Amino acid sequence: MQTHEGGGVGVGENYEIRVKGHLNARWADWFDGLTLTQESDGTTVLSGSVMDQAALHGLLGKVRDLGLPLIAVHRRTE
Amino acid sequence: MPGSIVQTKLYVPRRRGATVPRPRLSARLSRGIDARLTLVSAPAGFGKTTLVAVWLASAAPPDRLTAWLSLDQNDNDPTAFWTYVIAAVQTVAPTVGTGALALIDAAQTPIELVLGTLLNELSAIPDELALVLDDFHVIDDRQVHEGMAFFVDRLPPHVHLVIASRTDPPLPLARLRARGELIEIRAADLRFTADEAAAYFKDVMALDLAAGELAILTGRTEGWIAALQLAALSMQGRDNVGEFIKGFAGDDRYIVDYLVEEVLQRQPKHVREFLLHTSVLNRLTGALCDAVTKQDGGKAMLEAVDRANLFLVALDDRRQWYRYHHLFADVLRAHLANEQPEAVAELHNRASRWYEQNALRHEAIGHALAAGDFGHAADLVELEWPAFARARQEVTLRGWLDALPDEQLRCRPVLSNVYAGMLLSSGELEGVDQRLRDAERWLTTTAQSDAQRAGMVVVNEEEYRRLPASVAVHRAGYALARGNLVDSVKHARRALDVAAEDDHLNRGGATALMGLAAWASGDLETAYQSYGEGMADVQRDGHLSATVGRAVTLADIRVAQGRLRDAMRTYEQALQLASEQGSAVVRGTADMYVGISELQRERNELEAATGSLLRSRELSEQSGFAQNRYRWRVAMARIHEARGDFDGALDLLGSAQPLFMIDFSPNLRPIAAIRARVLVRQGRTDEAFDWAREHGLSVEDELSYLREYEHITLVRALLAGGSAVEAAGLLDRLLQAAEAAYRTGSMIEILVLQALAYQKRGDLRAALVALERALRLAEPEGYIRVFLDEGPPMAELLQAAAVRGIAPGYVQPLLAQFVTATAEPHARQNLIKIEPLSERELQVLRLLATDLDGPDIASQLMVSLNTMRTHTKSIYTKLGVNSRRAAVHLAEQLELLSRTATR
User: What's the CATH number where A23 sits?
Assistant: First the structure.
């Protein structure tokens, strides 16, 4: 995956995808190496660098295929 | 064989054992009979497939045909997708799709034509048909989606489509909904109600649960069926069911994680291993499982897993092929990747080998790519690409090439060259050169020693032998597309030098490209011969549409040669061939009608020319080449111009411009120049000179055939701007060039302009010498507009010619045409010279455009039916048509209907 300092076009963006339920850490690989954080409200946040929009939609497709209720998608700007 | 059909995809999947009856949903599906589309849209594990399958088996009307297609990743290719749709329909209606399948196999058939044929064949079947497309969410190919929208839009009323998908398909759902043509079953409908959950646990899974326990389970799972199933599996044979439920309810974990762990933990180790290892497979059968697990007894194991209800779906009647429920498979794969990450690639490798040994190359390539064994994947692609290319599965092929890492491609000259060919045919010129260089690296004579060939990979020796010729053909095509004629011919010659005698594809390709290069350089006879011979070789076993496509180019060359009659014959023969095909419209037919229209316009048969364009438009949706939309507008613009409607012509040219596409045929009449000619005729000479300046044109330019049309246009501007002397020198040179290459079409126009230039300078004698030459060349071919378009000065010259007895049999009728043309006001807005319709006839015409029948129209107008018929007849005569439909069509074209309405 391509990541560069500073962000910009064609460079990975940081996203957070929040789903309902606590997702086991073994799914990290499945989600292209995103970090899985289990929150106290019973949700899981998948976070990390996503190469582009196509990759983001690919990840959302995986969320869909697992029947995970999607709660929020958030782009982090630092 | 890439074209072979995996029959299991056409089989209605069955789950073992009983299912929960769902009468409310079945009833809704049955109501779908009246709708065009039924959409079952919900996430994984909501029982979509089961619902539709059970409904088909039990509740669907018995006289209804049902066709099923389970889609998978391999169907993301228009050819593969529609081949499977047709195969599915053929399981119940064997006659449907034979014509459409033949078209799919043919070269470059546009998908709309295939679908048009399929829809026709579907509308001919006597029975109601339900076509189910399951797992539609796997489709993300834009072309397939566009084809589906076209298909749904035109579905015959007795054919019903059922789509099951995890995401809403990109079809115009809102419109279908508004028209009541859509029945939807969504997640909220599919969730198990408390009653259904109770029935499921009790009747299907033989678990007796208390009402409170049931409520907890349905609450925690929100009626999600996959989760309830997993919960039931976890509870079977447990003593402490109450405790399990309590633990489950109090846990925040992703339900499936929690439950699958419960289920897997309860399996014996060898079953657990079997499930994990076989989870890499999209389809399972005993022998394949044995190959992947390196164990025996895969068949028995599958049967045991099936009996245990472990989410196995049977894909055929004999229980040979299965698949895991998708959600369960995903969880198993995640477990596998987590617990035995090092095993995954090897499992895919074993699967790839098994598929390869069983001649299922598509799957073999897929697993090799998944294994990350790109070398092996590339080997397979190299061996199999000719078959996939023949089957027109370009999208699939391109997907594989894109998936292979660059270093795997670069050491494989055959694949590098295949890649270059694919880029070239899709007009992506950028990458072509690099790919060809990658291939050429290995072909240089010095590199033939073994030492230098080290590092090169060739598995398809047959293609490698053909490679020098094929690379040269691609080089020739690349040079031609970039307008480099000299290099194009050089490479094509080289291709012929190195191609084997029986290598028809490359010999033909090279010859045809030389023909096109000759055309672009103005050597028309060579162009005609080479292109014709070459394409005949390329298309040896080709489809009729290829023959028709070739005819369009050959006729174009004939027109440039001034051989209008030969051009017309070429079109007529190709149309005759096409019509012998029966009902199907052959691709290129629409293009031929545009060509015919241009010939008719030259003969000043403007009504017929317009009629041909209308015919072309009726056909173009189904049968036009991409360039046809451009050519159609230019042809229509020139008819407007011939009628003196210059603004209309400019509008049409403006709309044509963005539709132009670069192809291998030379662009001999750039649209800006066509526009400049209209400006000259409008007297906007300054703007025409602006055009000439912008395009760097001057009378001193070196001449080339590619710029001939522009230079003649410059001459026209000069003559109109009063610089006849300046124009004369250029005209002389243009004439010499055209003469030398026997371009009679150009010669006639140049001579006409020469005559006008001499006339302007007061040299009538010289003017008539030039005119006489033009007349002698033009007479046998029946040219008219080339004289008529020049207006009164030409009429004067023709009069003078008539007085001197020059070509009397031709000049007299030409002069008669001038009389007709000038008797009508030049600025006439009407497209076609028609006898004006009376006010009453216009009223009748407007009513003919409605749905009213004859008696209704008569009563509306308060006349007798006979009087109404007299009016209708008179309208038909004046419009030169013989049906109501044709009259309305033409009236729309001439804007007669709107004009009446605003009056």
Answer: 3.30.70
